[in-house]
Amino acid sequence: MHGLINRAIQAFVCSTYGVSRWRDVTDSAGLGFSEFEAMLIYTDEQSQNLLVAMEQVLERPLPEMLEDMGTFLVSNPQVEALRRLLRFGGVNYVEFLHSLDDLPDRARLAVADLHLPGLELLETAPGQFKLLCQSGLPGYANVMMGVLRAMADDYGDLVILEHSGAQDGAEVISVMLVETEFSEGRTFDLGVKLP
């Protein structure tokens, strides 16, 4: 698994549960280290051991933690670059949803050896969608649930999300757009403001 993904898990656990709990997780996983390098590739076994240890040490269901991590990735100032990448997908939430098909390719433009599983958006009715999350990354659909929820808040829209099982080998997230402009969204500027 790409180091950027493991590094994101590290940032989430350290920020949410503390550095000492992170060290407990890495010790339990038997990694022999506690810091991931963002640009290295780690074995699937190391990453899987990390996820198992998270669930055991932090005593929370892994799907819940991964969804919280998806929210963290969008809403935490530490990882503002990901929010910016996602916001370039559209001026509103529906445009953002339609841009998700291209997310793995956009991620590869930013980091050439980062391979995210495919995403496919199906519009089933006005304001109702299914997002198909292809396999290949453990917990990917759970993380995407958190990302979708946080992005709805970012745009100020009210949505209902549900993990709807599997379809054609992909995990399905149902998205129902209840109300646009439900609340004031977060501001977003195309240009980055330098300090």
Automatic annotation (TrEMBL):
Organism: Parasedimentitalea psychrophila
Domain annotation Heme NO-binding: ranges: 2-158
GO molecular function: heme binding
Protein name in UniProt: Heme NO-binding domain-containing protein
